[in-house]
Amino acid sequence: MSTAKVHPLIKQMQVMLVAGVYDCLSARLAERAGFSSVVVTGYGVAASYLGEPDFGLLTQTEILDVARRVRRAVKIPVIVDGDTGHGGALNVMRLVSELVDMKCNGVLLEDQTWPKRCGHMRDKNVVPMEEHVEKIHAAREAAGDAPFFITARTDALTPLGLDEAIRRGIAYKEAGANLIFVEAPETVAQLERIAAEIPGGKVINMIEGGKTPILPLEKVHELGFFSVGYVLTGLFAAARAMADAYEHILEHGTSTAITDKLMGFGELTSLLGLEQKYELDTKFTPGR
Length: 288
Fold this sequence. Notes:
This protein is an alpha/beta fold. It has two domains: about 10-230, Alpha-Beta Barrel (TIM Barrel), CATH 3.20.20.60; about 240-285, no CATH class. The chain has 13 helices and eight strands. Strands 1-2-3-4-5-6-7-8 form an eight-stranded parallel barrel, surrounded by seven helices. It starts with 7 loop residues before the first helix and ends in a 5-residue tail after the last helix.
């Protein structure tokens, strides 16, 4: 990948742009494109692994299974959407311990009640702030001395208002979170207050079709956000491309007219490391 194609703010490390992934292939593609880190998104895993919406149906075991596979598939840092930790503080400790053991680099923990739902869906609710503070303490203890980032997310803005979301963001930072993520702000004015009033590094997600306005990277940086997640763009792109391809084949009975829109057999097998497998097969096959 040519570094000339990377946005200047990313090259200068003034912002961290994170791609959302949901399986090994999407993670490999993000790594090949040049992303310096990926986040295993709960929304994406629920959709691809279960065929379900992000509605509290994904279990801790399932997200850990995908995280383990993704961690093995790429060399860049892997952050994992931990939802609420799938229970209380002890569940959080187990989740973080598992992620540290597999050498993942961070977790996102949110303060929704369980069963949770995507932050851009309606009818969310949150636990008492003190309960989530203790989950952050538990995550910090479980991480120990490992180089492991904890992102504390609050969903309080929609049910309780911006003042409460900011209060929680400050408390979660004081509890030991490395980054703070106020979910689903709807206006630039809200983003300005979040960036100005919560100390330390802040996270913003750009969700196409979601509640938060999609802003240029320059504006996001100007507002004061450091970590910018395009966490569902890859999933949305893949779903649209597959839907169009399947519809075309069904209508025309052939893929000939759309081959220019497809990744070729050779390119995909190269991405997956076919040549290395040929070499290993030869090495361990008698008589070759």
